[in-house]
Write a structure and sequence with these properties.
The chain is an alpha+beta fold and 1464 residues long. 29% of the residues lie in helices and 14% in strands.
Length: 1464
């Protein structure tokens, strides 16, 4: 970038050191930026794209080529530019799917007026715009099924504002949601692609800006890896799930074990395919302004950022299998049927191919280009004059036939762009094809100075020519191109030299002698062919079989940098210094390889010496052999598909007569080369999953050679890849992305995965396998046929795989969905989604806004809905959306082996919050009174049910029954609208009776109606799709709590969800055995390492180091450790057994180790073999202690968990507390003793009653009683002595402290708590996130410790911190880390024998460690069982009658800590 010209205005706004540091140069009237020598260069490389690149010093550029932000009137006037447009042809595109304004509609939509005040609103209010817009649409939309489909889709592809960093803006969210509205009945594959290109998803799952390891190494000299976040979640959550499914949704089994759909090898591979995505350029007419990025338009793909190496797929193959080889492109490929041209207008800036680096460009590329003659057939296609004289350019042209060449078209191997007419350009987009990684007879490609050399396949058009009339070793002299930056195959390049009477020479440096240099290359970094031969080797990681591609540099001698005196000594010239870094022998670009059998590695001494041993790798010579596969007719299409992997271009794109007419055999066709039989040129055509494939009758095998050049027993199929190593074109990255998406979309799991989701979201939690299979078939076939009552057939869908119109029809019209008989099945149906209940209530009860001033702004704005009801639009908390589809609440649903995903959001705070909100809406309209959903208006004093007023609320329910005074008709009408007629006869009678009591035959004031609305809104039939059968018995009233009688103790499990990077929480510091462990830590962790000087030192005994360092933002941990009140637990995780290492761990583990949901569940259950299913270690501790006579209480604050669940047959349940405390229930009831009526509507049911309705009734009954009880206790309790910060965790710990303070009133002598604090999934910007998270955590923990000490119970409380898993020791290139296994944790409490570290901190953090299973994922060396065993003993649990074995079922597999080792 020396002497490059930039506009630094955007960087001024973002510069971390302040604006003045950059503005100083302009203020001093300087135009030269002197880069500070104390800044590392990667800081420039990382941030330079924020500024706007203009060109090179002393070069000129046109106004039209300036960045849009610089095409201002000020610049135009300064340079005296009369017309900014002139005669240029400009392609103007709207935003994708942009809809023009319809002015005939007048001013419609939402008004966000500020009453004329020039003030700003906090982010919490601005973010409400998006949910307000959603509610406005769904309440009034006529396309309700489309809206429901979009809502269901948004729960698959989940985003939130914390991970997208869209705290205030709404347009990004709304644009993203529109993907689902627009495609509700479209194709799932289209949705996957739109979502994958969305910058909102790119931010959410942190792959936006992800760059290849090779690129980062070259630019920053740092070893960083591709971000794995999206690669994992697009499989687990968006497409295939974690276990293989049959088409009916049941799990496939292998020896009674579920089969995983993917491994971490797949995730690492796919992560490399999601590199290169970045924002489109900023533009106007969007919500964001200033220097904010473009979160609206689909992401761009930067070819240079993309990983170029092979990637495995999900079917034991590679991404790129079945694609044709680029070397098989027919001659004049750009004139063949299917070729694509994109209109560039008057610009020659290529959109999909790599543009010459403008920093080195020395010539106008239009000075020598392919200008189509009007007699050219290609000109006719692109001009599209339709017989006239004026061209009608289309933005995209796809050739529908083969064309003849004209002029220079006949002499080139490929094109970049062509000129059509007067200054109008089209870019040629080559058809998708792949290259094979290994080849024989390679030739060198190099640059002018021979400082960026590779070994390339000479049959590919990847480089230019450079010729010489002499055999000089010092220079080449001339070029003979048809257009600037022309790429050609080796033989074409040689022919071009011969045309001008020259040839290639073995030069050491190119020097332009003829003036043709600038006329063909334009810049010195352009690659050209060199006559030197070269070879491609393979480097194999010894223990894993992973491989890297190495270009042999032995013949690539770069003399130009060496002293003249050594040039006569060729041996001294054999150096890799000038070899392209990504293919050197020390390159780290390893990828998974499908070996035919074994591989040369540690088990066989690098193939018994066949390969060269280089530390932990084997470097081997290779030979490629192409083999004929079929010499006679294949059995069928499946035989072809399973035997061949190399595709072929459509035979119709070749010249007439190249192939004979196809021969049909069984279910496939064969194309023979003219007059030939089965050979390597034979092509097969098959249909598979609705697509046509062409296969080439050949396999390419890579043989590993020994030192004498002979084949060994080691071989592999030649891996394909899309990206060329010389020119990394965005075109090929897009093609690869399509192939990646297809590898997901055509996986057999996608159909049942999608089927189950939509069936669940439309009200059936446990569909039969037959139902799932029927919907799966509609997805696969793209069609659903419904037989009408008159036996006629109605067809839904397009016939294309993934058609969601067919899926919707199959879900809604299947016999299982329509059968009224199944309604009587107690396991049928589901709990209803909280948000859908609210929307349906608003719609059914005909909510209307007031036409008063300002009401349009807040009339459909609901506040605090996630806290109140557990779910709302644009308020998803994580990528796991609102529900886990496998969730099953403890009790009768779990005991029946059923699932109820929605139950995950049903608990005391959300059930009370939902009912309070509906009651408030019903009685007083939309406002904030008594738990109302709306914004406050006019205060809540003197509330009167009949006092609806625009001064007190934003809108009201306007429903009016047909016969308002007929209680029976009113209740029936409401039952139809609110419960689809499911409301039981018993409940109707109860509600009718209460109606009659308040209305007394005349309900003119609406009291009876409002009471009936509230009472129906409390029934199980409103909250579920169950039919209820009541026994007539009243529920047992739980006995009052008695006082605690035994010494008090409590255990708190604090989950730092997302996966804390705990190897930065506790870091090796000094006094280490045998080596400097901090230096090793810093070397491995690179950009995510904590500086040694910042660490807070602690002393340890028996660990690899005598001193460790605590993260500087967690001083409370150091203080407690030094005070003897905290122990660290090193490299802990969920384990099946002791003694695992990198060689044997896969034989013992069969779950998704690195998935959030499975690892959180495993870490809370500590029951890896499922001996005590659906119970957690704290719940089992409580079970045992109750059996021993203790009075226990289990409390979950702010959300559900597994850890507190115990034996459902003998468990008082978990008390759920909201983070904001205990809300009063129905503070101002419509009638006296209203609770009794509500209890009667949710009374004891018979066994055949609907289970989901019973679940609601149980939750409500428990919730009302708990709320009343806890409210009384907390109101009478003195305030806490300690001030907690107003953070989410601070509120939760305050709640826990309040419960502990009320332990006597609650009658607990053993209490168990669960609290969660999120945000620790730091895939990107880890330092930035930790700077926010860790100081807050420190303050919250400090307040809690202080309060426990003030209460005098610090010695009776233990807090156990856990997390999903540890994180990778190595960084990804988003300056974050990815999911791993072993992690470091802590316990704190006054009874601990603190100041020690349990477990064993790893003594080797390098990739050679036997605990390292890749990228610094460490196998735990200590199990959770081992460190929880003493906690159970401290609580009073022993193993006299197997109690400890019940609490920790797998404990006997491990060496366990005892109470006296951990507690005083």
């Amino acid at each position: 970038d020396h002497l490059s010209v930039y506009d630094f205005t955007p960087w001024v706004r973002q510069h971390p050191g302040g604006k003045a540091a950059i503005k100083q140069f302009a203020n001093q009237n300087k135009a030269l930026l002197e880069y500070p020598d104390h800044h590392e260069m990667w800081r420039w490389e990382d941030n330079k794209d924020v500024s706007i690149y203009i060109g090179r010093l002393d070069y000129s550029t046109s106004f039209r080529d300036l960045h849009p932000e610089l095409q201002t009137n000020a610049i135009k006037d300064y340079f005296g530019i009369e017309s900014a447009v002139s005669n240029d042809k400009v392609v103007v595109c709207g935003s994708p799917f942009e809809v023009a304004n319809d002015h005939s509609l007048g001013e419609t939509g939402l008004s966000f007026s500020r009453n004329g005040e020039n003030n700003s609103h906090p982010a919490s209010l601005l973010r409400l715009q998006r949910s307000t817009q959603w509610l406005s649409v769904v309440l009034d939309a006529q396309d309700q099924l489309r809206q429901r489909m979009a809502w269901a889709l948004s729960q698959i592809f989940a985003i939130n504002d914390s991970d997208t960093k869209e705290k205030e803006q709404s347009e990004g969210f709304i644009t993203f949601y529109d993907i689902f509205v627009r495609n509700s009945f479209g194709n799932y594959r289209d949705i996957m692609k739109e979502v994958s290109y969305s910058p909102m998803m790119g931010m959410m799952l942190s792959y936006l800006g992800s760059q290849s390891t090779a690129y980062v190494l070259r630019k920053k000299s740092l070893l960083q890896y591709a971000d794995e976040n999206f690669a994992r979640e697009i499989m687990q959550l968006f497409s295939i799930g974690t276990v293989l499914l049959n088409s009916d949704g049941t799990a496939q089994l292998d020896n009674d074990e579920q089969v995983l759909t993917y491994t971490n090898d797949h995730i690492q591979s796919y992560a490399r395919a999601w590199t290169g995505f970045d924002y489109q350029s900023r533009r106007g007419n969007i919500e964001r302004s200033d220097n904010n990025p473009n979160r609206i338009d689909p992401m761009d793909v930067i070819g240079e950022y993309r990983d170029v190496f092979p990637k495995i797929d999900l079917s034991n193959g590679y991404i790129g299998d079945r694609y044709p080889l680029c070397v098989d492109l027919p001659p004049l490929q750009f004139l063949r049927k299917g070729s694509v041209y994109r209109l560039l207008g008057s610009s020659t800036l290529l959109q999909l191919q790599a543009n010459p680096n403008s920093r080195f460009l020395k010539v106008d590329v239009t000075s020598k280009s392919i200008a189509l003659d009007s007699s050219s057939e290609l000109y006719d296609k692109l001009c599209n004059a339709n017989g006239g004289s004026t061209c009608n350019y289309d933005s995209k042209v796809v050739l529908d036939e083969n064309l003849s060449c004209n002029g220079d078209e006949c002499d080139v191997d490929t094109l970049t762009f062509v000129e059509v007419g007067d200054g109008v350009y089209f870019e040629y987009v080559r058809q998708p094809c792949v290259e094979l990684s290994f080849y024989n007879n390679g030739k060198t490609v190099t640059t002018q100075n021979r400082d960026d050399e590779l070994c390339e396949n000479p049959n590919l058009p990847v480089a230019g020519e450079f010729c010489s009339s002499t055999m000089t070793k010092t220079r080449a002299e001339a070029k003979n191109c048809k257009y600037i930056h022309e790429r050609m195959a080796y033989d074409t390049a040689l022919g071009r030299c011969e045309e001008i009477g020259q040839t290639f020479s073995d030069y050491t440096k190119a020097k332009d002698m003829s003036g043709e240099f600038q006329g063909c290359w334009g810049y010195s970094r352009f690659h050209h062919w060199h006559p030197a031969s070269c070879s491609v080797k393979i480097k194999v990681e010894k223990y894993s079989g992973y491989a890297a591609i190495v270009h042999d540099p032995a013949s690539l001698l770069s003399e130009n940098k060496l002293d003249q005196k050594v040039r006569s000594d060729p041996a001294s010239l054999q150096s890799e210094d000038d070899l392209n870094q990504k293919v050197r022998s020390d390159n780290p670009n390893l990828f998974y390889v499908h070996w035919d059998n074994d591989f040369p590695g540690s088990e066989n001494n690098c193939g018994d010496g066949a390969c060269e041993t280089i530390e932990d790798e084997c470097l081997c010579d290779t030979r490629v052999q192409e083999n004929l596969v079929f010499s006679s007719d294949p059995t069928d299409a499946e035989d072809i598909r399973s035997s061949l992997s190399i595709g072929n271009f459509d035979p119709s794109t070749y010249d007439s007569g190249y192939f004979d007419a196809p021969v049909t055999i069984n279910d496939y066709q064969v194309y023979f080369r003219s007059g030939q039989s089965y050979n390597e040129d034979t092509v097969f055509e098959i249909e598979y999953l609705g697509k046509t494939y062409f296969y080439k009758n050949v396999e390419s095998v890579v043989h590993i050679l020994d030192q004498s050049g002979q084949d060994t027993a080691f071989s592999l199929r030649n891996p394909p890849h899309f990206m060329n190593f010389v020119s990394q074109d965005a075109r090929d990255a897009h093609h690869e992305t399509d192939a990646v998406l297809d590898s997901y979309f055509y996986h057999p799991n996608v159909a049942p995965f999608v089927a189950i989701h939509f069936i669940n979201r439309f009200g059936m939690s446990n569909p039969s396998p037959r139902f799932v299979e029927a919907v799966s078939e509609s997805f696969i076939n793209g069609v659903f046929e419904y037989t009408m009552s008159n036996d006629s057939t109605k067809t839904f869908g397009s016939g294309e795989r993934g058609d969601l119109g067919a899926v919707a029809a199959a879900v809604l019209l299947d016999r299982e969905a329509l059968s009224t008989v199944l309604d009587f099945d107690s396991s049928y149906g589901s709990l209803r989604e909280p948000a859908l209940k609210v929307v349906s209530y608003f719609r059914a009860m005909e909510y209307e806004t007031y036409e008063s001033y300002g009401s349009t702004r807040f009339a459909k704005q609901l506040l605090g809905m996630t806290d109140a009801i557990g779910q709302y639009a644009h308020e998803i908390q994580s990528v796991f959306s609102f529900f886990l589809r496998e969730f099953s609440p403890s009790g009768q649903i779990l005991a029946s082996d059923l699932v109820s995903p929605e139950a995950q959001r049903y608990n005391t705070p959300t059930s009370i919050g939902l009912i309070n909100g509906l009651f408030s809406l019903t009685k007083w309209g939309l406002n904030s009174c008594k738990g109302g959903f709306g914004r406050g208006k006019g205060g809540c004093g003197g509330l009167n049910e009949n006092n609806f007023s625009s001064n007190r609320s934003w809108g009201q329910l306007s429903f009016s029954p047909e016969l308002p005074n007929d209680s029976s008709r009113v209740v029936d009408e409401l039952a139809t609208l609110l419960t689809a007629g499911r409301l039981s006869d018993e409940s109707r009678e109860i509600i009718k009776s209460e109606f009659d009591k308040v209305a007394a035959g005349n309900d003119n004031n609406g009291y009876g109606l409002r009471l009936a609305q509230q009472l129906i809104a409390i029934t199980p039939e409103f909250h579920s799709t169950s039919l209820m059968k009541f026994s007539g018995e009243a529920r047992e009233i739980p006995p009052d709590s008695s006082s605690a009688t035994k010494p008090y103790k409590a255990v708190i499990n604090l989950l730092l969800s997302g996966g804390l990077d705990s190897f930065n929480m506790i870091v090796p510091h000094s006094e280490c055995s045998g080596k400097d462990m901090y230096d090793e830590y810093k070397t491995v962790r690179t950009s995510v390492a904590v500086e040694k000087s910042e660490l807070k030192k602690i002393n340890t005994v028996g660990q690899v180091c005598g001193k460790f360092g605590v993260h500087p933002d967690l001083p409370i941990l150091q203080t407690l450790y030094n005070d003897g009140d905290l122990v660290f637990m090193a490299n802990v995780g969920v384990l099946p057994t002791d003694g695992l290492d990198r060689f044997n761990w896969k034989a013992h583990v069969n779950n998704q180790l690195f998935a959030h949901n499975t690892q959180q569940k495993d870490a809370q259950e500590i029951d890896i073999d499922g001996d005590q299913p659906q119970t957690g270690f704290l719940g089992r501790m409580a079970d045992v202690l109750r059996e021993k006579g203790f009075k226990t209480g289990s409390y979950s604050v702010g959300g559900g968990s597994y850890v507190l669940l115990g034996n459902p047959d003998d468990n008082p349940g978990v008390v759920m507390l909201g983070g904001n405390g205990v809300a009063d229930f129905n503070e101002k009831p419509s009638i006296g003793d209203m609770n009794s009526v509500m209890f009667n509507l949710n009374n004891v049911t018979v066994g055949s009653s609907g289970k989901f309705g019973k679940e609601w009734a149980d939750i409500l009954d428990k919730g009302i009683r708990e709320t009343d009880f806890l409210s009384d206790i907390f109101q009478s309790m003195p305030d806490l002595d300690t001030t907690f910060q107003d953070s989410k965790l601070g509120k939760k710990l305050k709640q826990i402290a309040s419960v502990i303070k009320s332990r006597d009133e609650l009658g607990n002598d053993r209490q168990f708590f669960f609290a969660e604090s999120g945000g620790f999934d730091t895939h990107s910007a880890q330092f930035e996130k930790h700077d926010e998270l860790l100081p807050a955590l420190n303050e919250d923990l400090t307040a809690f410790v202080d309060e426990m000490k003030d209460q005098g119970v610090w010695d009776q409380v233990v807090l156990v911190m856990s997390s999903d898993f540890g994180r990778t020791l190595t960084s990804n290139n988003g300056l974050g880390t990815d999911h791993a296994w072993g992690g470091n944790y802590f316990m704190m409490g006054g009874a601990l024998k603190g100041g020690q570290m349990l477990g064993t901190y790893p003594d080797d953090l390098r990739d050679t460690s036997t605990l390292n299973i890749g990228r610094g994922r460490l196998i735990p060396t200590t199990s959770w069982d081992a460190v929880l065993n003493p906690v159970a003993q401290w609580l009073g649990i022993n193993n006299n009658i197997g109690h400890l074995d019940y609490v920790l079922p797998n404990r006997n597999e491990f060496s366990l800590y005892k109470k006296n080792q951990v507690f005083v």
